[in-house]
Each structure stands twice: as structure tokens, then as C-alpha cells.
Amino acid sequence: MNSKNVSEIVELALKEPEKGFRLIMLQYKDAIYWHIRRLVVNHDDAQDATQETFIRIFRSLSNFKGKSSFRWWVYKIATNEALRVVNQYQSKQISLDDILNETNNITTDEYVDYNDLEAVKLQKAILSLPTKQQIVFNLRYYDELGYDEIANITNSTSNSAKSNYHIAKEKIIKYMNSNN
Amino acid sequence: MEEKFDFKRIGKRMPYTVPKGFSDDIEKNVWNNVKNNITETKTIRHYLYWGSISGGLLVASILLLFIWHNLPSYQKKDDFKSLEQVFLNLSDTDQNYLFTIYQNDLFINE
After folding, report:
1. How far is B65 from chain A, CA to nearest CA, in Å?
2. What is the ipTM of this complex?
């Protein structure tokens, strides 16, 4: 979606809220859900954080002056919401590894297919990275965002984002090739 | 020997699944939350809009009244009164002279 279309949608959302709302949801809802899900793992948490993200977006839409990219603004809010959930878990001293591995407690992660071993291992590899590297890797690998946008979302520089991505990739390859 | 990991093999596949209709639920829940705020904002904007127009009209009216009130007066003066005043401002000699002229004027006294 080019910047002209985005600014038109934002303008529409301000003039005809429901129409604009539907268009924005259509454009970003799934991408934002999966971005958050990759960070928080649990579906219910991801759904809550996604809803909160879009509520925040629509409440502050009139403050979006169009000076920055709408996409990275949306992703930034989503990332902050995901990190809020992650921090809640960390404060309860539950590791994401436990959540992913806990097969007994299906209410925690009933929406994980443990039969896909390689996919499960890859997500574990990503989740073992420092949070910033997880975010950078996910945004680049899954969402195919540019390094400039990733830098804006993660409050870093484009070079730092690039560096983090390549380091993350090497760590993941090492993890996946390990016998663990 | 285990195959070395290759990103191209796995692509973007993830082990995560989702319940049916979750996407619609997200949209519905968000809309239910924001629609009231949007309606309130619309109502406030509506009042502000009409309030601005009314305020503008009121100010314009006051300005017009002010300008109209302070316009130089071009009312038709009482010609006779002004003429009389001019006559009274003349000296006695001039007044007597004019009286003589008027009395001897054939056209006025016809």
C-alpha cells in the first residue's frame, strides 16, 4: 500500500469513521495479530493485545499528522502492546519456553501444533534471542519490513537493525543445527 | 546425518493455530469499543461547527451595526432651517440688502 493510499485511508477514517475503520482493519489486522503472536505465543494474549493496539490507534488517529509512516506507527504501537504482555509474564517469572513446552496445560497454549517439530523448534530458537533481536528478526523475516522502518519501530538505527538481524539469523541457525 | 537447517525449507511456517472466527471477533470487539468515542467526537465536532458559524454571524452582525451606526449622516436636512440659519449669520446690512432685493423682485412678488 503506497503512502498516498494510506493517507487517504487515514483521512477517510477521520471523516467517515466506520468506513475508514474497516479499511484499516482489513489492511493491518492479520499482520499485527501475527506480529504480536510471535512475541507472546499465547493466542488469547495475542488477541487481547491486538484489540488494545487497534483501540489505541483509533483513539489517537487524529493525532497522526502523517509526518511519519502509518505502517511503522501501527507496528510500534503493536510492539509496545506485545512487550507489555511479555513483561507481565517475566514479572511472574514464567519463561516463554515453559509456555511453549507445557503440553499438559492446554488452556495456556492449546493453539500450538506440536506435531510440526521443525516449526516448534524454530519458534523456540527465536524466543531464546534477546527481545530486541526477536523483534528485529520477526519484522524482517516474517513481515519483510525495511531496515529503516524496523529502526523506527525499535528506536534504533538502520545499521543496528541490520546487524541485529544477521546476528539473530546466525544464532537461530546454530540453535536449529544443535541436537537439543 | 541430520539435515542442516535451511530457512528456505521452512519459509514462514509457524506451529501456531487460531480458533475459527477470531479475526472477526477482534474487529467486532475493537469497533464496539471505539464507536462510542467516535460518535461523541462527531457530536462535539458537530456542535463546534455550528457554534462557529453562529458565533461568526453574531460577530458580523455586531460589526455591521457598529459600522452603520458610525456612518456619516446623510439625512436630508431641513432646507428651510439651514437657509434661515445662514441668513441669521449674515450681518444686519446684508440682511437689509437682501430684504430690499426680495421686496423689489418682480417674480417673487407676482
Report:
1. 37
2. 0.84
pLDDT digits (tens, 9 = 90+) for B1-57: 557 899 999 999 999 999 999 999 999 999 999 887 765 555 666 667 777 777 888
A114 contacts B30? CB cut-off 8 A = no
Taking the Cβ of residue A137 and every Cβ of chain B, the question of whether any pair is shorter than 8 Å is answered with: no
pLDDT at A18: 87
Q: Give the separation between CA A89 and CA A102, rounded to whole angstroms.
A: 15
> Quick check: A43 and B19 CB within 8 A?
yes
Q: What pLDDT is stored for residue B59 in this prediction?
A: 85
How do residues A131-161 score in pLDDT, each as one tens digit?
999 999 999 999 999 999 999 999 999 999 9
Angle value at C-alpha B35, between A51 and B50, nearest 5 degrees? 145
What pLDDT does residue B43 have?
A: 60
- Identify any residues that bridge with A112 across adjacent strands, giving them in sequence order: B16
In angstroms, the separation between the Cα of residue A68 and the nearest Cα of chain B is 23
Q: Assess contact for A17 and B33: CB atoms under 8 A.
A: no
Contacts with B5 from chain A: Cβ below 8 Å? 172-173, 176-177
Exposure letters A33-72 (e unless 16+ CB within 10 A, then b): bbbbbbbbbbbebbbbbbbbbbbbbbeebeebeeeebbbb
Q: Do A123 and B14 touch (CB under 8 A)?
A: yes
* CA proximity to A51, closest of B18, B30, B23, B28: B30
For residue A172, the chain B residues in CB contact (below 8 A) are 5
> Which residues of chain A does B2 touch, with a Cβ-Cβ cutoff of 8 Å?
177, 179
